[in-house]
Design a protein that fits this description.
Helix content is 23%, strand content 34%. It contains 9 helices and 28 strands. Helix 4 packs antiparallel against helix 5. It is elongated. The two termini are 61 Å apart.
């Protein structure tokens, strides 16, 4: 005879299940790997096409290897504060500006100074190589943007147009003759390197801390204040395409990930936020212990690097590109061989093996399962109420009694002692959304069976009165919720919100 199946307890899931979308799962793969402590705030990060990245802090620029997780080189040949250390895509040259108005180009590996550019009248906060790798772009507190020839150290172009400090710049591989710069005069300007003229001016509305020219060359992103704005550079008069206001304090830096499809932003509110550029929605955020000054990822998206104002350089690593180890298949053992009989007793039987005796132990039934097995329905309900099981177990037994069409016979013919536990359970749980459907049906049957004896037992009368008040309170609460919902819908409709 087959064993009786145990009663299946219907467990209810959370009202709002926590589901991580793919983007959130992607960023959660980045686990803390290492932290470097510098002597000042990490004001700038740059990444080469190889695994090198640079961090500018105080009077030095440090070159790190993402693969090794160690310092490759430290350039400290600055008399005053260094700014905007930028490593070329091939990882061979490094350019940086300084508070003493100078711009220097170093060879990575030897720390020798290859070129010095003199011409700015004030501190140089912006340096970078252009897309051709033969010119250097600089921006200064003297409000100018200059282009320098790397081979001759001569000034090729001086572009004037900003009315305040120039603090950021960006280029695009698809538009090598277009440069984007941002300034504290609240504007972002697109320059044509061939003519030295301004091709477009975008009004950000706040001092611009960072700007990006997207790989397509037709869209730009700027940050300043607590907002990030997305622009179409060919339609500058029409305003921004999107405004992102997800930070509480000044957004200090923005960058693209290695694929160019995700935007990262860092802010003085200690937060780093990640956006999907197809929807401009925040997909993930990470909070740090100090205000964030710089952020970026390696070109392979294997490392997330964040520089903070307390001098800590946080590096998180993701197993991107790492293939899972492939387990070698175990060759089948030939039946009848010595290895076949030496497998041991713990070997799992194969699909072709004949099992003489499974040795499975008989399952232990709970008390209410034993009564259900013997069709003792009244005893099953009484036992589950006496043992004070949780509500899910009691409701599952009630549902099983409904399924077996035994509910009326189980509830009828009870005295005060056996009826009180059922009514008490219903009073406690009837307003629970997970159980109200079953318990309301049980309450209806009890009202039909015992309405003629109301008044004979003070204890039972008291429980019925409690049930009435509980249901009356729930109905009034639902009416108030409906009124509130209607009022909120009117407010949302009037304000244009969905």
């Amino acid at each position: 005879m087959a064993d009786v199946k145990k009663l299946i307890i219907r467990e209810h899931t959370r009202t709002v299940p926590k589901v991580n979308p793919p983007e959130t799962r992607f960023w959660k793969k980045f686990k803390f790997a290492v932290a470097f402590k510098e002597y000042g705030g990490v004001s700038h990060l740059s990444f080469s096409g190889s695994d090198l990245y640079t961090a500018t802090t105080g009077t030095k620029v440090t070159v790190y290897s993402a693969r090794k997780g160690d310092v490759v080189q430290t350039v400290s040949r600055f008399k005053k504060t260094a700014y905007s250390g930028f490593v070329r895509r091939d990882g061979k040259l490094l350019v940086a500006g300084s508070e003493d108005n100078s711009v220097q180009v170093f060879e990575v590996g030897t720390r020798s100074i290859l070129r010095q550019f003199a011409g700015h009248a004030r501190a140089v906060h912006v340096t970078r190589f252009d897309e051709s790798n033969i010119h250097v772009l600089t921006g200064s507190d003297d409000k100018t943007v200059r282009c320098w020839d790397l081979s001759t150290a001569a000034e090729v172009l001086c572009m004037r147009g900003h009315e305040d400090y120039v603090r950021c710049a960006s280029t695009s591989p698809s538009q090598p003759d277009s440069w984007l710069t941002g300034s504290y005069d609240h504007t972002v300007k697109l320059w044509d390197k061939r003519s030295g003229e301004v091709a477009a001016t975008l009004d950000h509305g706040a001092p611009v801390e960072g700007c990006l020219l997207l790989p397509s060359g037709s869209m730009a992103i700027s940050c300043g204040g607590n907002r990030i704005k997305v622009w179409d550079v060919h339609r500058s008069s029409g305003g921004p395409l999107a405004v992102l206001s997800n930070h509480q304090k000044t957004v200090s830096c923005i960058s693209l990930d290695g694929t160019g499809t995700r935007l990262l932003s860092g802010s003085l509110d200690h937060q780093v936020k990640m956006y999907d550029l197809s929807t401009y929605k925040v997909t993930h955020s990470i909070k740090y212990a100090a205000p964030v000054l710089s952020v970026g990822t390696t070109t392979s998206n294997s490392h997330l690097v964040v520089g903070c104002s307390d001098g800590v350089l946080n590096v998180r690593e993701s197993p991107v590109g790492k293939e899972d180890a492939v387990k070698r298949p175990v060759s089948a053992i030939k039946p009848g061989s010595f290895a076949y009989f030496a497998r041991g007793k713990n070997i799992a039987p194969g699909p072709k093996d004949s099992i003489a005796d499974s040795g499975a132990k008989r399952q232990k039934l709970s008390k209410y399962d034993q009564h259900l097995k013997k069709f003792q329905y009244t005893e099953a309900l009484d036992s589950v109420l006496e043992t004070r099981q949780n509500a899910e177990v009691v409701v599952s037994v009630l549902q099983e009694l409904f399924r077996r069409d035994a509910m009326k016979s189980v509830l009828s013919g009870r005295n005060e002692e056996t009826l009180a536990p059922i009514l008490s359970f219903i009073v406690r749980n009837v307003t629970d959304p997970k159980h109200c459907t079953v318990l309301v049906d049980v309450a209806h049957i009890l009202a039909d069976l015992y309405s003629s004896v109301i008044g004979m037992s003070p204890a039972i009368d008291n429980l019925f009165e409690k049930l009435r008040r509980r249901l009356q309170w729930e109905v009034k609460a639902q009416e108030q919720y409906m009124k509130l919902q209607g009022a909120m819908e009117c407010i949302f409709t009037a304000s244009g919100l969905e």
